[in-house]
Each structure stands twice: as C-alpha cells, then as structure tokens.
Amino acid sequence: MIFASDLDRTLIYSKKAIGEGFGAAEVIPVELYQGEHISFMSPETARLLVELSKTALFVPVTTRTIEQYERIFYIRETFKPRYAVTSNGGNVLIDGEPDPDWRRHVAKSLAESEEAEKVIEAFGRISSPEWVKSYKHSDSLFYSIILDRENMPLEQVEDFRRELAGMRWNLSVQGRKMYLVPDGVSKGAGLLYVKERTGSSRIAASGDSLLDESLLRAADYAIVPRHGEIYASYMEAGLYTFTERDGMGAAEDLISKIAEWFALPAAENDSPSAK
C-alpha cells in the first residue's frame, strides 16, 4: 500500500497558511531555510503519519526541486522515505538519489510538448514587472515564477492558460508562485513508476493544487484539502472528496480518512465507490 501526498499546503504549511486553531508554539518546525524555520506540521499530523507509515509506504510528492525538497529536514529525518517524487514528477528519488531510468523516460516525454524557450517567450507577451518579480527554469523541466498576486491580470492569465494547453503545457498558481509545466512532467506518472517498482496494489493520495490532479487520478482513493486550487475549482462539482477543515487541520483530517480507507477490506476499498 502507498500513501502518496503533496507536501506544501497539504501536509506542511507556512506561517501564513496554517489557518485557524494553531499557534506558533503548537506546531512542529519541518523546514529550515537561511537559518529560519519556514514550514510547519501539527503534532497530530506527525503522530498520524507515523502510525500510517507503519503499514503503508509513505511517498512524498512535490513540485519542489530536489534541493528545495531536501530542506524539509523533518520528513527526511523522521520518515526516511525510500521513494520521493520531486520536480513535479520530473525526478523520482530512490534513497535520496535521482533514478536515471525515470529521468530518461521524462526526457522522451518532453519531446511531445513545445520547447521551453518558446513557452517563456509566449509568457513574455503578458508578463510585466508590475506583477512578475522573477522566474527560473527549475531543474530544466518547468518554470517557477514569483508573483505579485494582487496585480496579476486574471483574464490575460486565463487566456494564456488556454494558449499553453495547445502547446501541451499547464499553468498553476499557488500562493505567490505560478508554475508553467509541460505535459511530460507529472506527479501522477512519477507515482505510477514508484507503484510499478514496488509492486504495490493500492494507492491513496492527497493534494491541493491543479498540478496534483494527475496524482489524484493515479490513486485508488483520493482526498483533497478544503482549500487551494482544486477546492476553488471543483467545490460544487462532486468530483473529489474534501476534508472537513481547511488549513493545517486539513492534514489531520486527510490522514485519518486515508487510514480508515486502508483499514477497509480490499474488496471494498478497491471498488469504484472508494474513489
């Protein structure tokens, strides 16, 4: 069994994203950057995840680059994940090292999408210093763009999203960041590779952004925090199961629900109604 989960705003939270009911003294620091703790997990989330990891393989799945993922010391030291999917699926780590076979597979998949240089050139037609602060080509796979969210031109961004689809790229806005990601780089594909390598029969997954949809579709059971892009896009569509709470409380809710699902008889949680 695999529990595959996005990290930021799903299991771990910045100070601004923690939500109601959690004070600074009541959370566990999990990420250190430039001498400062910048991400946190609730003690109950940590306890639940420790218990779940005794019976299921915990696979962190993140849009973060390898370097950014490695800053999350608490997950690395406490859970010592054998497998992790980073770079939005562009890298699969095995015992902390990128798997070369997977990277070769990704390189072939990227050939089916428009070249990265043409994508950023197209983005330049709507980009402005008023709302775009910086960008970088992360791991030579996708673009990570720092935004002034309040000044972002929503209509132009949505038009660009449709233009990107024709280039076989995707756009996701998460907090003050925008990601431009080619179709050949997906969390779901990376997870299915891990499933094949481990011979696992069942997957439960969680995530909050549109970049997590491939991850959720690869799972037999999926649950989404009551916040973020997916919740905003599908809250009334009935496509996903959402947690009872938002913010850091959502992490506690989703692990509890996943533990309940894993405890069901196999015939029941493998049925279509389990999704």
From TrEMBL:
It holds the Pfam family S6PP. This is Sucrose phosphatase-like domain-containing protein. InterPro entries: HAD-like_sf, HAD_sf, SPP-like_dom, TPP-like. Residues 51-224 form the Sucrose phosphatase-like domain. SUPFAM superfamilies: HAD-like (SSF56784).
